[in-house]
Amino acid sequence: MRLSFSSLSLATALLVSTPAFAQDAVAPAADAVAPAEATKSAEAPQLILAISVDQFSADLFAQYREHFSKGFARLLDGAVFPSGYQSHAATETCPGHSTLLTGVHPARTGIIANNWYVPGIGRNDKKVYCVEDETNPRSTSKKPVVSSDHLKAPTLGDLMKKANPTTINAAVSAKDRAAVMMSGHDTDAVYWFDDNGFTTFEDRKITPAVEAENAALTKLVDAGAEALPVPGYCSAADRPIKVGDFIVGTYRFPLTAGDYKAYAQGPRLDAATGDLAIRMVDELGMGKDAVPDVLSVSFSQTDRVGHAFGNEGVEMCIQLAQLDATLGKLFDALDARGIDYAVVLTADHGGFDAPDRLDQQGYPAAKYISETLTGDALADAVSKESGVVAPQGKLLYGGGSSGDIYLGAGLTGDQRKAVTDALVAMLKANPEVDAVYTADELKSVPLPHGNPQDWTMLQRVRASFDPERSGDVLMMTKRGVVGIAHPGPGYVATHGSPWDYDRRVPIVFWRKGMAHQEQPAPVETVDIAPTLASLVGLKEPAGTWDGRCLDIDGSQADTCAR
Predict the structure, then answer these.
(1) Of residues 3 and 474, which shows the higher confidence score?
(2) Could you give the CA distance from residue 128 to residue 200 in angstroms, rounded to a whole number?
(3) Hey, which of 104, 247, 296, 488 has its CA 20 to 30 A from 380?
């Protein structure tokens, strides 16, 4: 049934010509769109712009918000929730993105990790990727045939298209798992970066908009580029940190001609993602009528910079300055097209710095995870302790940076009990492990509710637990233990823990004319979908969401009462 929406009244200041693509737009500066000039409307926006910044922790947001002057700065005039939570324990990209527009925790989305194991599957590594169709014979965990099949919950875009098929639901990211998790199942266009250009599902073809963006980025990479500028406020972070036999903390992202790998690891790919988002708006005709559309944009490079260099060096400072400019360009382009749009910006998870830098900054207890907690080492030790030898494949899969550990296939009931008992005892005795749970324990725990900062460790793990996909034993490492056993160039820091530096993320809403508010009380990323649903007048049955609608207008108006 078609949702009924009235025509939207646009301010005359937005009656400007529409350029073909983002880079051609000449739009007003971010500070030109002031609340005092705006026309406040209770009607639905023409476009929902859902933005995720991968690995953008609440700590990074607090650290850099005073320096933002472009896109981020505009959002700070909206509804700011600086203490948002990815409430669950499995703080990885795929689970985090799965919560953003479904409004439910990973226990209900079924996305319990970036990868999980199926010991009985007919492939050597037994690993399944979160957006993979593993039934396709051409698919492998390292080169998957991308699919949304594993996502068990509908996204906001799915529900809006079900209510009105003329809604456009589209997504773009450098990462396939981010774009797929935010857009869902019923999509009009989904793109991600693969090796040297943006691509899509194997049963679809890239469109002229994507071809144009790929041509533009190819031209840039082939020509190369100088190092990126360092803002003055980055000076304190600009110092070398030794990690093993290499250095982080001073890199400025020069681009050698033809080096697609370097391009894919730095801020320039975020800029291309933003440019492609505008090309998609033009090509798909998004925001052109009173039926709201959904555009999901996940910027991946904060995560890649965080992994490669840590989050407290000059590299992250440069990255966030560049992303601020990219966001500003995106918003200005939408303004130039006269689109009434509502923005939400958040993150899939936070992140932790490299222990080598943390040691110099007041946290000497931070450390890389020990080899003893990796899958193979655990399997050897458990086999010796229990006397059980794997009849096929490995005795255990997982461990290390993953909290889920799976027992190998072909074990008898008695063998499974002996292996589980030995594994649990071994993990509980390990000084790097904070908590250990078996799948049988977690099955009887109810899904948690209430303020997420108060959740016990058991509740955080339960919010990530799916009995069909989670491990047989789940371990949570102690605060400060970084889930990397062997750091090296390109991988010195990570996330994935149940601790607040990985769980806490900002959540910010903005729409022209809304009254500003700053609300420090804890909220959750599962609150985003019901909040946006209220904005577009979408009514869903009780129990659809794990989250709640947030009143995002700081005035007496109640955005949840529509």
Answers:
(1) 474
(2) 20
(3) 488
